[in-house]
Design a protein that fits this description.
Chain B: It comes from Methanoplanus endosymbiosus. Chain B: Its EC number is 6.3.1.14. Chain B: One of its GO terms (molecular function) is diphthine-ammonia ligase activity. Chain B: Keywords: Ligase. The structure holds 2 protein chains of 2 kinds. Chain A is α/β, with parallel strands linked by helices. Chain A contains 5 helices and 10 strands; from the N terminus they run E-H-H-E-E-H-E-H-E-E-E-E-E-E-H. Helix content of chain A is 18%, strand content 31%. In chain B, 33% of the residues lie in helices and 30% in strands. By secondary structure, chain B is α/β, with parallel strands linked by helices. In chain B, strand 1, helix 1 and strand 2 form a beta-alpha-beta unit. The chains are: A alpha/beta, B alpha/beta.
Amino acid sequence: MILITDLCYKKGSLSYYEYVNPVCEIIEDSGFEYDVIHYSELSGEIPEKYSSVIFCGTALKDNLFIEDLSLMQAVRRYNKPVIGICAGMQVVASAYGGDVRDFKKIGMSRIRFSPGDPIFSDIPDFITRSGAVAEDNSDMTGNSGSPVYEFEGYEVHSRIPDMPEDFIPLAESEVFQGACGPFGSAISPVSSGSERYPELIRHRDKPVYGILFHPEVRNVWLIRNFARLSEGGEF
Amino acid sequence: MKLGVLFSGGKDSVYACHMALLKEEVSCLITLRSSNKESYMFHTPNIDLTMMQAEAAEIPLLRYETAGEKEKELTDLKAAVSLAKDNFGIEGIVTGAVMSVYQASRVQKICDELELFCFNPLWYVNQEKYMNSVIEDGFEVIIAGVYSCPFDEKWPGRVIDRKTLAELKKIRDKYHITLTGEGGEYESFVCDAPFFKRKIVIDESSCSYRNYNGTLSITSAHLEDK
């Protein structure tokens, strides 16, 4: 059974329907059982009966969850598959020592990945190959020569975690320097000189993932893959 | 938390308001009245009747005029939301967005700039469950306009009940429309909702229809005790 964790500002909040319910629908449609628990009820421990945990997103202004240190400790101690979406990615990264910084993005982003990780095991037809191949480097799982795929992902966040030491990026987007939002608000880069930022990260040795964009919007395949792998598959 | 609801008078914004009232306080409804029938964000048939719906719900309505020009209408929306923040002290906005990233992301940006929460309680809802809830929860909704094949001239004015929903499902399966009309296949108007103190009764209406495009214009209506 999968545990879906609600990170919103209070149990049973109005945000539940937007950030938690769509993930529940995907898990249910995939044929898996799940429970939903608000993070305040975890009491510093993720119950062993669950096969994996999904941490859902929160509203743009809702950052209360990050103050709960026992939540981070619980994630660090947990040895089963974890995936954190948006705010959940902040939880995962913070648990493993990553700082959180301001970085705003609202809207669709072009995301690139090389399918070396099991989370990409079932790529739907609408996702296209970019024509490029992965370069020989230490990120994107270092799979030199692999095809690069592209898709659109929906981002709504005001902050982004730095990638912890033990994590690698599996997918990324580009920051367009000097780009502006519709009201002239500048899009700030992750760090000075950086042109790319991670959209999907994974621990080097454990099936612990963070996703910056919202896969429940137009990219349910990623959540389905994670659910299937954690319920009997192999990461 | 005091909230303002972006309110078009159709089922999605009215149902979102219903959900918001179950969790938080709704201080005002906000209607953008667009003079552009092709507006991406705001056009709805019978938009002037949101005043009667607000009266039925006994919730203040803030009405704001917009020319409905792409992007400029977003400046107007921001001005309207800003006014609601000043006048009603709202801390967040509620929308009836179901799947439109175009609409949702633009409202998110406006809320962010005005330091307001943004709530989309129908976001990626299971459309069949949602439509069943609309009926089961006691909403009285009519089809106020149809804008795609195969809807004929008999559709404008129909009440969304079990029979209508069953037909919509058949049309969805055959023509791949969305059950909720999210793709602009049809528009709706709410005559009654659980939080309305009184209900709207339509006295007179007219319908224009041509080539799968038909709009019901409500020309006279009154409030009645429930």
